[in-house]
Write a structure and sequence with these properties.
The chain is an alpha+beta fold. Helix content is 34%, strand content 30%. A hairpin with a 3-residue loop joins strand 8 and strand 9. The chain is globular.
Length: 198
């Protein structure tokens, strides 16, 4: 089983994350940021990765630290669970609609962190969702996961109007692409790279 667990404590937050890449999409999420909990639950469900995440932090100041630190630890734990990456598909693509919103995501488990995020309407980054989560945290969270997970991620919003729908479509597109990328390939028993390492 491809599993890992990590924790991190700073003066701003305390985070604990466990991951099972070969799960069923079962999750237990509590970050003290309700909308972020909703997005991480969707990430687990649609990636079929079991997630157990607990985080507390200085949310009385801002949710930024808690969201960022949770995403850092999640990325690190995904990377650890992937191990040597033997037999994975490596690449994943998904297009996910949510009513009027449509997001597309490509994931490459490359070992080379990179994040490209494009297409959101002007003002999305300032919109407050659920009373706590600003639109800018979407990019910051997924970028932190990508950088700490060794993932190349290209995420594009094709269209969208409602801020909630936009973020949810983006997280679900990332989840579906990640699911495909980390799945084992029954035709392969090697690292999917001509270099022999990812």
């Amino acid at each position: 089983m491809r599993q890992a667990q990590n924790s991190r404590t700073t003066s701003e937050s305390t985070v604990s994350v466990s991951v099972n890449l070969d799960g069923t999409g079962t999750s237990n999420i509590s970050t003290s940021v309700p909308f972020f909990d909703h997005m991480l639950t969707a990430l687990s469900k649609h990636s079929m990765i079991d997630l157990d995440i607990t985080a507390t932090g200085d949310t009385h100041i801002d949710v930024h630290h808690t969201v960022e630190d949770t995403s850092i630890v999640l990325g690190q734990t995904l990377r650890e669970a992937l191990g040597d990456k033997v037999g994975i598909r490596r690449y994943g693509f998904a297009a996910v609609p949510l009513d009027e919103a449509l997001a597309q995501c490509v994931v490459d488990v490359s070992g080379r962190p990179y994040f490209v995020h494009d297409g959101e309407p002007e003002g999305q980054q300032y919109h407050l969702i659920g009373g706590h989560f600003t639109g800018s945290m979407t990019s910051h969270s997924l970028e932190s996961i990508a950088f700490n997970g060794g993932l190349t991620v290209h995420l594009d919003l094709v269209r969208g109007r409602d801020p909630h729908h936009i973020v949810e479509a983006e997280f679900k597109a990332f989840a579906r692409a990640l699911r495909e990328a980390v799945e084992t390939d029954p035709r392969s028993n090697s690292v999917p790279s001509t270099k022999g390492v990812l």
